[in-house]
Write a structure and sequence with these properties.
The structure is a single chain. With 150 residues, this protein is mostly helical. 73% of the residues lie in helices and 0% in strands. The chain is built from 4 helices and no strands. The longest helix is centred in the middle third of the chain and has 47 residues. The radius of gyration is 30 Å and the shape is rod-shaped. The protein starts with a helix and ends in a 10-residue tail after the last helix. The relative contact order is 0.09. About 4% of the residues have low confidence.
Length: 150
């Protein structure tokens, strides 16, 4: 469990770095777009080839930034999905949601005896799967007779 937590921490740090890069690249994309408009305007007004060359140079840089930004966006989505999977794995471990669909008890799911946010998940403080399975078996097969069985 601690390994999953450290992986989540590392992924969150990497996500934070990628988001900063995304912000900076987005700022430069906006700046280059504004420069594109300005250089194109001066090219149209002055009809000078240096403005056209400047426009085309900035256009190349703009497209390079655009491609690099799309790669950063893909990495951000990938990291978010990895974090989501790690969180789901951690949640399954915490809830010990090792349920089978073939329980003999007719109302185990109706009464929330087993599953997420169930009686079992709130009562469970076991450290092993064997202890968890024993508790689950006791909850599913309660003896509700009037005689006391100690």
């Amino acid at each position: 469990m601690s390994k999953v937590l450290s992986i989540i921490d590392d992924l969150n740090l990497e996500l934070k770095i990628l988001k900063k890069k995304d912000y900076v690249i987005s700022f430069f994309k906006l700046l280059f777009f504004i420069l594109l408009i300005i250089f194109f305007y001066f090219y149209l007004v002055k009809n000078d080839s240096k403005w056209l060359f400047s426009f085309l140079s900035i256009l190349v840089f703009f497209f390079i930034l655009f491609v690099y930004n799309s790669e950063i966006q893909k990495k951000i989505v990938f990291i978010k999905n990895k974090i989501l999977v790690c969180n789901e794995t951690l949640q399954e471990y915490i809830n010990k949601n090792h349920t089978n669909s073939n329980f003999e008890h007719d109302f185990c799911f109706d009464l929330d005896i087993i599953g997420l946010n169930s009686v079992l998940s709130y009562l469970d403080k076991t450290q092993t799967i064997k202890g968890f399975n024993k508790l689950k078996e006791k909850l599913l097969n309660l003896n509700l007779s009037k005689e006391k069985n100690y």
